[in-house]
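Here is a complete protein record:
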Amino acid sequence: MEWCQRQVPLLTGCDPITGGTGLLLPVQAGFPPFPRQLHRWHGRVKSACTCQPMAVRSAFAALSDWRMHRVGGRGMLLKGRGGGCPCNSHRLSATMSSAARPDPAETPEEQRFLSTEEAAALERELLEDYRFGRQQLVELCGHASAVAVTKVFPLPTLSRKQRTVLVVCGPEQNGAVGLVCARHLRVFEYEPTIFYPTRSLDLLHRDLTTQCEKMDIPFLSYLPTEVQLINDAYGLVVDAVLGPGVQPGEIGGPCTRALATLKLLSIPLVSLDIPSGWDAETGGGDSEDGLRPDVLVSLAAPKRCAGRFSGRHHFVAGRFVPDDVRRKFALRLPGYTGTDCVAAL
């Protein structure tokens, strides 16, 4: 068949596997590349439809993630996640049938949160098998955490005072993510200040601290015990003190006192990975009378304690996790939109 000389007949047929109906296109030897086929098909349907052109374009924009099945050796059934002509008289049947199997990455009702052991195994997989670097993972998580802040607190909607962000960092990996988050918030034209009471001697922490200092991000030498001073000075606080498996008693008095102050704040609180002090498995411990963040940013994948999170916004920052790893750990999470590095849960 010479594609440039013949129009493709539009037929309907039934998928013998799923029972769904859809649009059939003939398949013959020398069939042209699929993008050209779809383009020509798009042109024919658009010219035959009486809807507004914008509505048609919107309908076809929704026909993504195509799956093709051979039907009776004479054609292919085209399926997508949704779409079709928006008017009732021209509803396209090339959408995914209800019997078709959904993408497991896009079924939030089946979300699965990770145990501490599974989270550690996932990180080892990234570091050892996929050869991610530790600094690379920290950078990805810190950048995504800053993006999550911008989604909940968009800069154009904030007053000058509300743009000020206090980032409280601990000496473990969560603290390193907090330092990266502060740097990116500065790039995004927020006004971060860092409180880092127990500084790590780890080279990565020192490098990230230097980067923040070189970008003129101020560091507090102490955290005021008068809670209202913090409420008046800052628009929100980022909690990057403790990560999964780290208890307040393990990091010393300054961080413990900082957490006691954070519990009393009335301004919005954003916790990275888990709310500091929570048991990563059960959400027990300080979750009973401790930090109550408004926003939680789960790093790579949500931990089990996130099931007890009752704040306004929960994001997962794990777009960098390869599909094979997501399948291996049976993660059921929403898809990421466009080029977003975070997804709302």
Remarks:
- Confidence is low (pLDDT under 50) at residues 1-18, 21-109.
- The first strand starts at residue 11 and ends at 14.
- Residues 134-152 form the longest helix (19 residues).
- The chain is about 30% helix and 15% strand.
